[in-house]
Specification:
The protein is of the alpha/beta class. Helix content is about 50%, strand content about 20%.
């Protein structure tokens, strides 16, 4: 049977449409059935710090919501760059996520001369999990022995004894490190910087008296402050924290006008992760953060719950890039 040109054309178009449907089916099926296996949340710092605390608070909530285990895996090193790079180079299938931070996604790009990934192009932002102030803390016994009771006392002693007080951080390029560098720059003090592979190990040495001061994230420092092992001098945010209402800001205590070095933590996926998966995770995180149990737990630790949309989180990260680039430049900090 001879077919007309129009009939041949219709058959060809129908064949193309069918092929497109067949090719698209696996991707659509993969999205609709996700997750079909455990999902990994990479924490780019050692256990015990705020990044780890928040990831482990979210993991069971997501496990319940999606019916698959969400497993936290710590990959510490290089100010969070090692763990973040692992996720950036993982398949964009929704099975590897990152608990990113202000360090991995705002500070490091300006601080490191070479980066293994592009913090804006290589990730699909999902949602902000929480924002937290840092807190300037000192070993309580050391502070009492040196008669240091507040920020003014600390600055006076540090200027009179340059290099005698050491400053711990969770790693080069983290907000904990940079808050300390900004403090040193604005006060004209010198303290050797001791970087660790996360806030947890740094905190152990601070409590043990092996290092002297730290500008730690409030949630991970709060238990030691309440236990009397650390002396809290000031929070690094623009406003006081509800978790430590009697503790002044650095700007108030200094006074250091304009001092603000707060931290934030959020979930991200590799660039190219299907929007359907990204949106589903965001919705469940936002729902969990809005439950009384999780919200009260975070607020008690000094963290402010997030839950914004992927678009809002992307715009937030872009703004934070610009802000911290200026802070890094003003502090003079740089890592080769």
């Amino acid at each position: 049977m001879n077919l007309s040109f129009k009939q041949n054309r219709r058959l060809a178009l129908a064949s193309c449409a069918l092929s497109a449907i067949v090719l698209a089916a696996p991707a659509a099926w993969a999205q609709s059935t996700w997750p079909a296996k455990p999902v990994k949340i990479v924490v780019p710092f050692a256990p015990g710090g705020t990044t780890d605390i928040l990831a482990r608070a979210m993991a069971p909530e997501l496990s319940k919501a999606f019916g698959q285990p969400f497993v936290v895996e710590n990959r510490a090193g290089a100010g969070g760059n090692i763990g973040a790079d692992l996720v950036a180079k993982s398949p964009a299938d929704g099975y590897t996520l990152l608990m990113g931070t202000v360090g991995t996604h705002s500070i490091n790009k300006a601080l490191y001369s070479k980066m293994p990934f592009d913090s804006q192009k290589d990730f699909a932002p999902i949602t902000l999990v929480a924002g937290v102030p840092n807190v300037m803390v000192m070993n309580a016994d050391k502070a009492a022995a040196l008669n240091i009771h507040n920020v003014a006392d600390f600055v006076k002693y540090a200027k009179a004894n340059p290099g005698k007080l050491s400053m711990a951080s969770s790693g080069n390029g983290t907000s904990i490190h940079l808050a300390g560098e900004l403090f040193k720059s604005m006060t004209g003090t010198f303290m050797p910087h001791i970087p660790y592979r996360g806030s947890g190990p740094a905190m152990l040495d601070l409590v043990g008296g092996n290092v002297d001061v730290m500008f730690d994230n409030l949630p991970s420092a709060l238990p030691q402050i309440k236990a009397g092992k650390l002396k809290a001098f000031a929070v690094t945010s623009a406003q006081r924290s509800a978790a430590l209402p009697d503790t002044p800001t650095v700007a108030e205590a200094g006074p250091l006008r304009g001092f603000d070095a707060s931290s934030w933590f959020g979930l991200l996926a590799p660039a190219g992760t299907p929007p359907d998966i990204v949106n589903r995770i965001q919705q469940e995180v936002a729902k969990s953060l809005n439950t009384p149990a999780i919200k009260e737990k975070l607020l008690a630790q000094g963290a402010i719950p997030g839950g914004n949309t992927p678009q809002q989180f992307t715009a937030f990260i872009d703004a934070e890039h610009k802000k911290w680039a200026q802070v890094v430049k003003a502090s003079g900090a740089k890592i080769d």
